[in-house]
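step=encode ok
step=design start
structure_in=
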């Protein structure tokens, strides 16, 4: 089972990789059969192809973003983060303040991640 230190290191890699906007590197963080839903109310993306498509679409719909984990909470092979992402689209900035919950495999790849946020968590500074 991953240790709390390893889970925090995974979160640091995840944040760095999300900010890199590198689809291949992002997809490599996940197991081949991983489940990803952002937000959790959306149908999940299952497997590398679907997860890569999610990242390609997200990157294609924005000019830039800054993602940060404001707090990290570990429990066995799960880790939850309080995140904020500021996304630039069409010259405007949208900020999403939410939670992501990860289930992590022994090899420290992500088995599943679900993001929790809705319209109330959006702001336009």
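sequence_out=
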């Amino acid at each position: 089972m991953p240790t709390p230190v390893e889970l925090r290191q995974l979160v640091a890699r995840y944040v760095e990789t999300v900010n890199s906007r590198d689809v291949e590197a992002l997809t490599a963080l996940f197991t081949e059969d991983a489940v990803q839903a952002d937000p959790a109310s959306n149908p999940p993306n299952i497997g590398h192809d679907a997860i890569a498509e999610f990242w390609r679409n997200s990157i294609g719909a924005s000019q830039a973003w800054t993602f940060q984990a404001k707090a990290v909470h570990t429990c066995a092979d799960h880790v939850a983060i309080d995140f904020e992402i500021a996304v630039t689209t069409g010259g405007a900035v949208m900020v999403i303040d939410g939670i992501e919950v990860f289930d992590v495999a022994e090899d420290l790849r992500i088995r599943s991640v679900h993001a929790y946020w809705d319209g109330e968590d959006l702001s336009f500074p």
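step=design ok
step=annotate ok -> The first helix runs from residue 4 to 20.
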